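Quick one:
INPUT:
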């Protein structure tokens, strides 16, 4: 690509049109005269949203519905777009509407700020908490209806209000009827094919974060509101501040070219937390934040929005907060290779039978069950327990901690989550029988506890602390408690306990960490970003984990809930700003489509596509295979499928590659993509078949 300066780029319509194409054929180029006049913007919108997770999607939906012309900038490529929202468990909050509203405000305020708790611990946010609690208490009651409006095929059975909230000691607990966490699932989730990864499930069998993401991003934004433009692979780099107000965004276009985008009304920062930003982790996280923490969401959340906001004068709030406990971490991935940041994975067995947790000395230190128990208030605060500082040795003896388990546990289930988080999505390899993790050394294996202690000791992060005697004693005591039916040290519920007794024995390191950071940019109830004096920075809004409202504590499901509540609030208020240019961006000519439970969704569109409707041409779609993406190109000639070609791929030789060798010929012979999958290669087969169908949809549209 020739190196065209922006000045050249902006001159004349032809160059402008080139810019539009480079940017993904969306947006409106300002007329040349207007470009000069405005200090040269390449594109013009009313509201620019940075980041397409749950928060960004909701902000965009709300701003669009309020009449604004909206652009979303997303850093990741479309085919491999895995936000934290998508990788998540899909839990959210929907309190009982019959609950007392004033009590609801108090209960929410306690989670956000804690200052109305009698003991008044950390978390206080008196400059924003009252209004914020009111805004949230109103918004949270609309969460279910909003979700269902985006995706009428979600199963309402899992969204009934009720159940017990997590914090009985908080004001308003009884009267507020806040309720337990709900989960997003499409109606046919029970028919999901367990051999498929979450992202490969057909729409109606999706569940958890995949369903939450699909409802908001694919259904809510893309299908229902095609007028919202999205630029993938286009990270925002800077906010443009003029005369004390944010007037636009600088982004890096797909081809590396700088794009300056005018935001007539406002910008919404929804680019997630700083989980994979090394200097921010070093600066903000307690304990050894760089080597001693792990996160199990997208490695693309690198605190970009926090950095951009700071540059225009934003204040920060409780930046060291995280929704965290202790989790599995592995030396894997780009951030590990480049910066030594381990990749987290959600563990599935931290509180399971035939397992227990010890510190670096080999001592148990807590009731392991509270680490995963959503019905109690400790779950996402457990990292604080693990960060206990030992004054006399000036060290953190619980970093890392060690999950000790036996062969019964190893054989029983996968040690990491298979329905969500990075391993489920194939971003970190982990076989269901755990054997590859043992092979890689991510799980230590030994025939005796003594040998296991030696292996732990050999790990530099043990810092020579464990003794075989201590580990053996801890295991024997734990097993004796299992036999006696009572955990005399930590009162772990006996139903969750079984002895660690059957060799071989295993040890897996656990670090403080979890889904996401929560602290970041300070913001008020309108979701305006605040400066250090608590004053709004004009035309700058925010939502999501970059500015989480839960500064004191957090009930499982709160982050996705705030994506909806705060994302909508930010989008609505951003769209309500008066245009600084004095006019609005031209409206999109793409008509909105309201999705109903019976209307044509993408899956159904794919299912219904008829070759007879396809126009001749060459069409390409990306398939998400077992080991990454590959392109599939279909040529339609004379109304027939002439060829199906597969581009470069990494599918496993002799397994996935069989599907790639055989399916194209089968599809051409059948003149249909409805062919049988190749045995043993179902993931690759389904991916290839779906890509062919997507090509046919393009050809028919
Ligand atoms: C495995 C896992 C399980 C979880 N389970 C739950 C749960 O069940 N319930 C719950 O409430 N919470 C859960 N969470 C937390 C919750 O998912 C997140 O806090 C929430 O989804 C954050 O939403 P967001 O929109 O703020 O950020 P994200 O969903 O992470 O979206 C941020 C987006 O911004 C993009 N981006 C980053 N930088 C830039 C840039 N410079 N320019 C443009 N785009 C950029 C990213 O690529 C990403 O797509 C879980 C998290 C994880 C990782």
């Amino acid at each position: 690509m020739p190196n065209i300066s922006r000045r050249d780029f902006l001159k004349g319509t032809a160059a402008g049109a080139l810019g539009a194409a480079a940017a993904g054929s969306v947006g409106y180029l300002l007329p040349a005269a207007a470009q000069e006049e405005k200090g040269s913007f390449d594109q013009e919108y009313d509201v620019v949203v940075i980041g397409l997770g749950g928060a960004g999607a909701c902000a965009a939906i709300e701003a669009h519905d309020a009449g604004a012309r909206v652009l979303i900038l997303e850093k990741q490529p479309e085919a491999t777009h895995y936000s934290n929202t998508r990788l998540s468990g899909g839990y959210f909050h929907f309190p009982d509407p019959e609950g007392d509203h004033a009590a609801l405000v108090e209960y929410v305020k306690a989670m956000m700020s804690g200052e109305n708790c009698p003991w008044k611990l950390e978390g206080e946010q008196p400059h924003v908490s009252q209004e914020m609690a009111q805004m949230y208490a109103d918004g949270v009651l609309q969460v279910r209806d909003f979700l269902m409006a985006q995706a009428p095929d979600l199963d309402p059975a899992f969204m009934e209000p009720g159940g017990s909230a997590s914090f009985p000691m908080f004001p308003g607990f009884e009267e507020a009827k806040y309720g337990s966490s709900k989960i997003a699932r499409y109606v046919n989730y029970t028919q999901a094919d367990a051999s498929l990864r979450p992202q490969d499930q057909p729409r109606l069998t999706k569940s958890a974060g995949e369903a939450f993401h699909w409802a908001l991003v694919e259904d809510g934004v893309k299908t229902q509101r095609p007028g919202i433009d999205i630029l993938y692979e286009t990270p925002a780099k800077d906010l443009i501040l003029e005369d004390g107000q944010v007037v636009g965004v600088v982004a890096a276009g797909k081809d590396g070219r700088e794009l300056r985008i005018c935001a007539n009304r406002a910008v919404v920062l929804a680019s997630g937390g700083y989980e994979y930003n090394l200097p921010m982790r070093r600066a903000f996280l307690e304990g050894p934040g760089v080597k001693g923490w792990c996160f199990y969401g997208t490695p693309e959340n690198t605190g970009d929005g926090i950095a951009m906001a700071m540059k225009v004068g934003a204040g920060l709030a409780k930046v060291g907060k995280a929704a965290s406990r202790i989790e599995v971490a592995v030396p894997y991935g780009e951030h590990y290779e480049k910066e030594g940041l381990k990749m987290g994975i959600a563990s599935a067995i931290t509180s399971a039978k035939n397992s227990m947790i010890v510190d670096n000395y080999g001592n148990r230190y807590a009731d392991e069950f509270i680490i995963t128990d959503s019905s109690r208030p400790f779950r996402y605060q457990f990292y604080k327990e693990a960060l206990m500082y030992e004054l006399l040795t000036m060290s953190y003896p619980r970093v890392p901690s060690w999950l000790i388990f036996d062969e019964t546990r190893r054989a029983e289930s996968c040690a990491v989550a298979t329905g969500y988080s990075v391993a489920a999505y194939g971003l970190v390899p982990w076989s269901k029988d755990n054997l590859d993790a043992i092979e890689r050394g991510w799980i230590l294996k030994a025939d005796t506890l003594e040998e296991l202690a030696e292996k732990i000791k050999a790990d530099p992060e043990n810092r020579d602390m464990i003794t075989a005697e201590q580990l053996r004693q801890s295991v024997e005591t734990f097993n004796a408690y299992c036999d006696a039916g009572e955990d005399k040290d930590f009162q772990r519920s006996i139903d969750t306990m079984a002895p660690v007794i059957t060799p071989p024995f295993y040890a897996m390191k656990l670090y403080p960490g979890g889904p996401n950071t929560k602290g970041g940019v300070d913001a008020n109830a309108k979701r305006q970003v605040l400066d250090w004096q608590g004053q709004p920075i004009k035309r700058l809004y925010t939502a999501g984990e970059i500015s989480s409202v839960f500064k004191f504590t957090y009930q499982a499901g709160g982050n996705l809930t705030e994506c909806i509540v705060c994302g909508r609030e930010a989008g609505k208020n951003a769209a309500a700003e008066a245009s600084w240019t004095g006019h609005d961006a031209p409206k999109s000519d793409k008509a909105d489509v309201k999705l109903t439970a019976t209307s044509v969704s993408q899956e159904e569109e794919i299912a219904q596509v008829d070759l007879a409707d396809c126009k001749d041409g060459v069409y390409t779609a990306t398939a998400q295979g077992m080991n990454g993406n590959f392109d599939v190109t279909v040529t339609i000639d004379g109304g027939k499928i002439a060829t199906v070609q597969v581009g470069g791929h990494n599918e496993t030789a002799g397994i996935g590659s069989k599907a790639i060798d055989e399916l194209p010929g089968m599809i051409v012979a059948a003149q249909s993509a409805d062919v049988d999958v190749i045995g043993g290669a179902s993931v690759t087969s389904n991916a290839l078949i779906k890509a062919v169908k997507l090509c046919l949809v393009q050809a028919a549209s």
